[in-house]
Amino acid sequence: MGLLDWFKSAAGAAGDRGDISAVKLDQGESAEVAGLDFQAAVSAHQKWKTRLQACIDGTNEEKLDAEVIGRDDQCVLGKWIYGEGMATFGEGAAFKDLQSAHAEFHRVAAMVLNAVYDGRKEEAGQLLASRFSQASVRVLGLLANLFVQARG
Asked: In the CATH scheme, what is the homologous superfamily, with its name and number, of domain 3-151?
């Protein structure tokens, strides 16, 4: 499967099921556009659900700072959004949607962590399963859509 097809599949899969992990790139293909490796950004954001679940379960050995996690300008994607992404795509509706959804993703991740740290693990699990999952699917789908628009 070609790179553009991968993201088209990813955009469709995220919209339908929220799981794009089964979609694979051909070896040697680059998912970089305007300084962002879109495939790496997708992968990094998919891993957050596992990290947050480990916090809820008490199996996470890393201490995550909810204040830092809640900021949408600290991860690779966020730095790109407020830098080269803004310069390249800032006027487009798809980019603005991604920026907003990415901020929500981080706000909800921080809410999950705060609930865990406050001893409200059931609430944290509910947030993870609902609002966080929805925000994650939205970010992944919008990333895929932006890539398709940029490369298509």
From this structure: Aspartate receptor, ligand-binding domain (1.20.120.30)
Crossing angle (nearest 10°) for helices 38-57 and 3-16: 40
Strand partners, 37: 32
Which of 9-13, 25-29, 95-99, 140-144 shows the highest mean pLDDT? 95-99
pTM for the full predicted model: 0.81
b or e along 29-65 (b: 16 or more beta carbons within 10 Å of the residue's beta carbon)?
Answer: eebebeebbbbebbeebbebbeebbebbeeeeeeebe
* Domain definitions of the chain by residue range: 3-151
Q: What is the pLDDT of residues 84-135, one digit of tens each?
A: 999 999 999 999 999 999 999 999 999 999 999 999 999 999 999 999 999 9
C-alpha pair distances (Å), 66 with each of 51, 72, 142: 13, 12, 24
Angle ∠(23,113,129) on CA atoms, nearest 5: 45
The structure tokens 């993870």 sit at 128
Residue 67 burial (CB count, 10 A): 11
